Give the backbone structure.
Amino acid sequence: MVYLTRKAEFAASHYYHNPDLTPEENQRIFGKCNNPNGHGHNYTLEVTVKGEVDPRSGFVVDLKQLKEVMNREVLDAMDHRFLNKEVPEFFTKIPTTENLAIAVWQRLASKLKSAHLHRVRVYETPDLFVDFYGEE
Amino acid sequence: MKAHLTRRYLFSASHRLHNDDMSVDENQATYGKCNNPHGHGHNYMLEVTVSGQVDQSTGMICNLVDLDQCVEREVLSRYHLENLNTLQEFSKTVPTTENLCIEIFEILQRAFPYAHLDRVRLEETMMNSFEYAGGAEVPH
């Protein structure tokens, strides 16, 4: 079993707001992140797949294909977007880094043919990242 | 008390991804630019993770000097500034970073007796990395 990780970067904006809460509660829980005009991050995405090395090619997965799937399913949808307004998952869910990692997993899991998705890691900043391993 | 220790090393090498059993077109389709007949190079970043009980008198899992000497002797001196395709272990195996990662794990597992080898992680570029734990699952 070999694990392969591919990184990608994207920039997006978001804000945190739960319509079921009062303005005061939203402000208290989310603080500055509740600003409705949003704010942005340079996100780093790490996608880890696992599998056996194909004896013929020496590859676990075709990296080019993985990159294409990541570009198509994630970066094209999220890069330079306002997550709350432009990415359907976040019309109803708060675009926290936790929910972002889950959304990326859901977008990729069914699209990776030859490799098994092991982990999605999303860095919001170099000091803060979330790992999601699927439903455990 | 058991602990895990990771040490980083750098080496540079060249390779060409090519399988003699495939046709010219199949090699090109499988490996793309990496099939360029003259090869190309990378600065590889190697991470070696070992684990063991922390020795009460030294406070260490193992002596880092021993680990450094072993990695230098067995891995870096073998691969640094070399063309991987010319080495015996890649005479029949394509030197993908998957296969290089497995090879380095097996070399160190044989050569380093002072702690348990957990994992070898190899970055081929800033964007790609590979991990091998002897066939075991890499723990979360």
Chain B has one domain: 2-132.
